[in-house]
Specification:
The complex is a heterodimer of chains A (about 240) and B (about 60).
Chain A lengths: L1 H6 L1 H32 L14 H28 L2 H33 L7 H20 L5 H14 L3 H11 L19 H44 L1
Helix pairs in contact in A: 2-8, 3-4, 3-6, 3-8, 4-5, 4-8, 5-6, 5-7
Chain B lengths: L1 H9 L4 H41 L10
Classes of the chains: A mainly alpha (about 240), B mainly alpha (about 60).
Chain lengths: ~240, ~60
């Protein structure tokens, strides 16, 4: 698919044009269903009351911030090892979206924490490692855009993405390895999810909606990147003749 | 009826936190979507402009033979 991309940008463009509306539709459906279930058709928590509803945006955002970084690390690794240009493009296209979700995770987390724990922020292992993830995103975006010649920022940024991936298991297991104020895992546990079904459903709907949102935006951004490449080709062609 | 709506906005006292959280989420995701759409539209316009300039060059015009 990667070499095909280079040889058949028109095919990818047609694929992107066909996919994007369906991904957008799927996103809209899942988010609508998730919001309905989350805000209107699910119970309050016996301890946290209605505040628990923040979970339906905070948790999906956290998962997406981490998953997207994993995609970037894999794509960057393939770029560094096998020199796939698509690896660099995929990573660059994903980074701003991952940053957005990371910001959502941090802000909604603070809004959840203030009424629950009485603090906007604590330097526990989970929060600190997610903040590190935020700075890794910023670092990646900074490096990849630092040079006038975009190609010069490719390798340093890709290296940062790959090296930073060690932060992901730290985030995941931080609530197990250290004493954290952040609650332990409720979803991805060896014993299975520890969450009421009526809460699990809106959570999964929102997670699905966020995932499709990422894929939809990714397709749109990749298509935009192709358009930019085509334009550069045209400009070069015009200057050459 | 009005009470139900008020209760919904109050969110059991957590209103500012819950709606703040959903608001930030909507803002960031909406902003990302809007930025992507605008960028695509700008690039498409730019591309068609470049293409028509290229096609309208004398050496590229179809000539009757």
């Amino acid at each position: 698919m990667n070499l095909h991309y280079l040889a058949n940008p028109s095919r990818f463009m047609r694929l992107a044009d066909a996919l994007a509306p369906w991904l957008a539709l799927g996103t809209g459906l899942l988010l609508t269903a998730g919001l309905y279930k989350g805000l209107l058709d699910s119970p309050a928590d016996y301890q946290q009351g209605e505040g628990v509803r923040i979970m339906y945006v905070h948790v999906p955002a956290a998962y997406m911030a981490m998953a997207i970084y994993a995609v970037m690390a894999l794509a960057s690794a393939s770029f560094l090892i096998w020199k796939h240009p698509l690896g660099d493009i995929l990573s660059r296209a994903s980074a701003p979206i991952g940053l957005g979700f990371c910001v959502i995770c941090l802000v909604t987390g603070s809004l959840w924490g203030k009424p629950m724990w009485g603090a906007w922020w604590v330097w526990d292992a989970r929060l600190t490692s997610v903040l590190i993830l935020f700075f890794l995103y910023l670092g990646y975006l900074g490096l990849s855009n630092a040079f006038d010649d975009p190609a010069r920022g490719d390798r340093p940024a890709a290296l940062l993405a790959v090296v930073g991936v060690v932060n992901l298991p730290v985030i995941k297991f931080s609530v197990d390895w250290w004493n954290t104020l952040h609650q332990p895992a409720s979803l991805l546990r060896a014993e299975g999810p520890a969450i009421a079904t009526e809460m699990l459903i809106p959570l999964l709907l929102m997670l699905g909606g966020f995932l499709l949102f990422y894929l939809c935006l990714l397709v749109v951004r990749l298509r935009g990147e192709l358009l930019a490449v085509r334009m550069r080709g045209l400009i070069v062609g015009m200057d050459g003749s | 009826m009005a009470n139900a709506l008020t209760d919904f906005f109050r969110m059991g006292g957590y209103g500012p936190f819950v709606w703040g959280a959903y608001g930030v989420t909507a803002l960031v995701m909406g902003g990302m979507a809007l930025a992507a759409l605008l960028r695509t539209r700008r690039r498409r316009r730019e591309l068609s402009r470049l293409q028509s300039r290229l096609e309208n060059r004398p050496e590229n015009r179809e000539t009757a033979r």
